[in-house]
TrEMBL record:
Listed name of the protein: Glutamyl-tRNA amidotransferase
Molecular function GO labels: carbon-nitrogen ligase activity, with glutamine as amido-N-donor
Transmembrane domains' residue ranges: none
Coiled coil ranges: none
Signal peptide per UniProt: none
InterPro entries linked to this entry: Asn/Gln_tRNA_amidoTrase-B-like, GatB_Yqey_C_2, YqeY/Aim41, YqeY/Aim41_N
């Protein structure tokens, strides 16, 4: 079993004992999403830590988008609940790259690929994605690459 999944299970029982409702429901949801991912496909399998991080990243993104939707609909209480869940999930994710760190990685990838112009974005993304996996959202990475290649 992955170390991250073990940590989630341990934190689940801790939050039950502490009666921390937000943390409890968030970890339960995360473990359910991991279990669904494990049984998806032709045969059941155990997820690696990297795969668990991808599932948690996807769940955190869902919470952020739901929060925005609730906020736009004038439902502040539900929006805050989604943000609280997102905060719990982010505790289990690797630290996000700052704009400067992401920019430096983009510059390295552009230099490595020898790319110039927006048409070379695919080559740069192919080199860059493994370096930023789980530490920056895909849309943010793509925007940084687009900005660098356009200038």
């Amino acid at each position: 079993m992955s170390a991250l999944k073990d940590k989630l299970k341990a934190d689940l029982s801790t939050s039950m004992k502490a009666r921390d409702e937000v943390r409890l429901r968030t970890i339960r949801m995360a473990l359910a999403a991991i279990n669904v991912e494990e049984v998806a496909g032709k045969s059941a399998r155990e997820l690696s830590d990297d795969e668990v991080v991808k599932v948690l990243t996807r769940e955190a993104k869902k919470r952020r988008e739901a929060s925005e939707a609730f906020a736009n609909a004038g439902r502040a209480e539900q929006a805050q609940a989604e943000l609280d869940e997102q905060a719990v999930l982010e505790e289990y994710l690797p630290a996000q790259l700052s704009d400067e760190e992401l920019g430096a990685l983009v510059d390295e990838a552009i230099a490595e690929s020898g790319a110039s112009g927006p048409k070379a974005m695919g080559q740069v993304m192919k080199i860059l994605n493994p370096k930023v996996a789980g530490r920056a959202e895909g849309g943010r990475v793509a925007q940084a690459v687009r900005d660098r290649l356009a200038s």
